[in-house]
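can u pls check wat happens w/ flavin-adenine dinucleotide
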Amino acid sequence: MKWDYLIVGAGLSGLVVAERLTNQGFRCKIIDKRSHIGGNAYDKVDDAGVLIHPYGPHYFRTNSQRIVEYLSQFTEWEPVAYEIRSFTQGKYWHFPINLNTFEQWMGRPCTEEEWAVWLNENRVDIADPQNSEEVIVSQVGWEMYRAFFEQYTLKQWKKHPRELAASVCGRIPIRMDRDNRYLQEEFQALPRDGYTQMMEKMIAASPGLEIELGVDFLATRNSWEYEHLIYTGPIDGYFDYSLGALPYRSLRFSFESYSGPELQERQSGKSGHWQPVMQVNYPDSDVPYTRTVEMKHATKQKIDATTVVREFPEDWAPEKEPYYPVPTKESAALYKKYRELADAEKHVSFIGRLGSYRYYNMDQVIGMALMEAQKLLARRKNT
Ligand code: FAD
Ligand code: UDP
């Protein structure tokens, strides 16, 4: 069978591009080496009956109405004000840093004016922050940077914030008001029945789409016939790491479920929950994990059980998942060389978080996949 498009990866990138292309009459096949669809956005009901995000918390957010409309064909939404806390010095702090955090810092009620004065006295004057340390100290100064960012970042990336692009810590807003939401995008919601169900609906709306799981493209690359390949795996892997391996960061997840009297006894803030909010970050260096996530706060599932997922950062190795591209100057330079090789492959598109080696959120990879489909369709029209 010769496919119009062979798509490597059944994550959001692969599924979106497949949905677009099959609806224009093209024959598409997706292969994925994992045993399930959805890539890192996959969610599932665990043995305790709790809907969990096994590959880390996935909070959908976007400023793009176009992407909301696109996904709304496949799901309804459950609006969520994602709230987290940072646990250090023995207590839970409001995070991201805002006026509530400042009051905790000062140990008394404060006004927005006092907060502004304090920031002016403490922030470091850096007009154009060049790295993740500069982007935070230029907003809140050294003390809060050291309390909430420096050690967390070292733990997560095994790199000092000075070595990481400003965009890494720059993802986290700093606020003058009391807005406790973790994220800043206009639209913040979860697919009402979960990501996997949304993606299954996407597949059902992709006429003739074939999906084969448990197949590694790199081990089978000569056995496929296709006009064009859409590759959403790691770009360096596609080229057999010929220019050297790009750096990735991996994670280990540990899962704990609680129910019945054990859970009732805990009564952490909200009944039926193990911790006071959906996510707690641990910036201290003597705690080996970065965060604990109790997704039930966000999904609002009605069940006498809960599951907490603990995230331990790990070095990447070929047998581990490359969860995060590592945004440094060196990795950008190496990626640029791989990009040149990729551009010379006229019958291959490299998209997605790994194919483009970008620390992208779901809405961004969906946007990229929609654009790529449009480009491929325009190319077909012209030939
Ligand atoms: P992936 O989901 O990585 O899918 C790629 C697929 O390709 C995988 O299934 C993989 O098995 C397959 N594959 C790779 N190589 C091969 C091969 N050789 N052969 C066959 N198959 C292969 N985004 C948000 O918007 N909000 C969040 O809160 C959020 N939290 C995150 C938390 C964590 C811990 C992580 C790791 C990511 C998070 N993201 C979040 C980002 C989000 O996961 C990605 O933007 C999105 O899922 C990327 O989709 P993708 O299809 O590009 O890649
Ligand atoms: N960060 C930090 N302290 C925190 C939260 C985040 O230093 O309490 C930094 C850290 O470097 C992290 C980055 O900000 O990798 C982005 O955080 P986010 O929670 O967005 O990471 P993700 O969900 O993508 O893992």
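Residues 2-43+194-246+324-382 form a domain with the Rossmann fold fold (CATH 3.40.50.720).
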